[in-house]
Structures are given as structure tokens and as C-alpha cells.
Specification:
Layout: E1 34-36, H1 39-45, H2 47-59, H3 61-91, H4 97-149, E2 153-155, H5 172-182, H6 197-209
Parallel strand pairs: 1-2
């Protein structure tokens, strides 16, 4: 059976679970030694990642509750301002006071968004920490799957190398099985002072070059499969 791959996406990790494909005639023979794997799909379907996604809302309940409470407070603060702005605009679209009202609303919204990002930063950092642990085992998982399947060439459709392939080439499940063996679960809470790999590398490069050392982003991006 043949199927088309939908590109895998990452945000926190979004992906399509379809099989990767390579363009080939319908009756083509499978060429031995070639495999196709979607690494983002492996990460997102791994036991370690799914378990962490289930545990995180419980472990970080205080942060989630604080963010929800603050979001509700910001909405309550903005609602009367928006109501007045809409009414004043409907009454006189050229009213000079509208510009000041709009700026106030924008400032409150932007400031509120920054507050929410700060409150939720530990959750983003946790997701990055879990994903990095999984990524650290991906290469070994791929190599183990390749050895078991006697594969010498592996393609990743998320990198744009594959458009279509017969389902017989798909070894995503094989790599996933190897990963689950290598890393049944991941640590959910990063150690004190932990930074995502990208930030660590930036800081190391900046320190060597004498440039300003980058700081931790308020909402660290989740890492994706390599």
C-alpha cells in the first residue's frame, strides 16, 4: 500500500503520521538497502515524549493556573477599553483621542503577552529539555534500525529529500521501536540552570568571539528531530 507524506511541523512538535514516499512506478520493485524515516514523527510518537506531555500539566499546574488567572485578568482589563474604543470609533472615526486609546490597548496587550510568556517559560523549557534528551538518542536509534534492516541509505522527507516512496521503504516505526528501547522515559524537569542546546552553543560561540553572551529566551522553542 502506498501513501503520501504530510510535512511534519514542530511547536511544542506537530506532525503528520503518513508514510514517507519516493516517486516510483506503481509496479516497481523495492530496492534493498534504502529506507525512509520521519524523525519528527519518531520524536512525537516516542513513549518518552508522550509520557512527558501527559505529566507536564500536572507537574507545572501552578504555572498553568497562574498564567490562566493572569490571562483572565488581562482580558478583564482590556474589555472595557475595547468597548469604549469601538463606541468612540463608531461615533467619530476622526476623534483624535482614538489614537491614544489604541496605543494604550496595544501596550497592555503586549505587556500582558510578555508576562504570560514569563509565567509559561518553565513549561517551554521542560519541553525543550525532554525533546533534547530524545534527540540525543535519535542517531543511535536510526543506526540500530538500519543495522537490523540491513539499510545503507536513509532519507528524511521532512528535509525535502523525498516526495514519494512505496510504503515498503518506511522504517519510521522501526526507528521508533529502537528509540523507545533506548529511552523509555525522559526527565521532565530540567536541572537548575539548564539551557537548550541552541542557547548553549550560542553562548559558547559568543564567549570565544568576545561578543555579547545571549540570554535565555522567554519562551524557548522546542527542539525538533535531527
Amino acid at each position: 500500500m502506498k501513501s503520501y507524506l504530510k510535512p511534519a511541523l514542530a511547536a511544542g512538535i506537530m506532525f503528520a503520521a503518513a508514510s514517507p514516499m519516493i516517486a516510483a512506478p506503481a509496479a516497481a520493485q523495492v530496492v534493498k538497502g534504502i529506507g525512509v524515516v520521519s524523525l519528527p514523527a519518531v520524536v512525537a510518537n516516542s513513549n518518552a515524549y508522550k509520557t512527558a506531555e501527559t505529566q507536564r500539566p500536572v507537574t507545572y499546574k501552578a504555572q498553568v493556573d497562574a498564567a490562566e488567572a493572569r490571562r483572565a485578568a488581562i482580558a478583564a482589563q482590556l474589555q472595557p477599553l475595547l468597548t469604549k474604543y469601538n463606541a468612540d470609533q463608531a461615533a467619530d472615526a476622526n476623534n483624535p483621542a482614538l489614537n491614544a486609546q489604541r496605543q494604550t490597548i496595544q501596550q497592555i496587550g503586549q505587556s500582558g503577552q510578555q508576562e504570560l510568556q514569563q509565567l509559561l517559560a518553565p513549561i517551554s523549557l521542560s519541553r525543550a529539555y525532554v525533546t533534547e534528551q530524545i534527540e540525543d538518542r535519535l542517531d543511535t536509534a536510526v543506526q540500530n534500525a538500519a543495522k537490523r534492516k540491513n539499510i545503507q541509505l536513509i532519507l528524511d522527507p521532512t528535509q525535502g529529500a523525498v516526495i514519494y516512496a512505496d510504503a515498503a521503504y518506511n522504517i519510521t516505526q522501526d526507528v521508533l521501536n529502537e528509540l523507545n528501547t533506548l529511552l523509555p522515559s525522559a526527565q521532565l524537569v530540567p536541572p537548575e540552570g539548564w539551557l537548550p542546546r541552541e542557547i548553549r552553543e550560542q553562548q559558547a560561540a559568543a564567549a570565544q568571539g568576545g561578543a555579547a553572551v545571549p540570554t535565555v529566551p522567554q519562551n524557548p522553542p522546542a527542539a525538533t528531530g535531527r
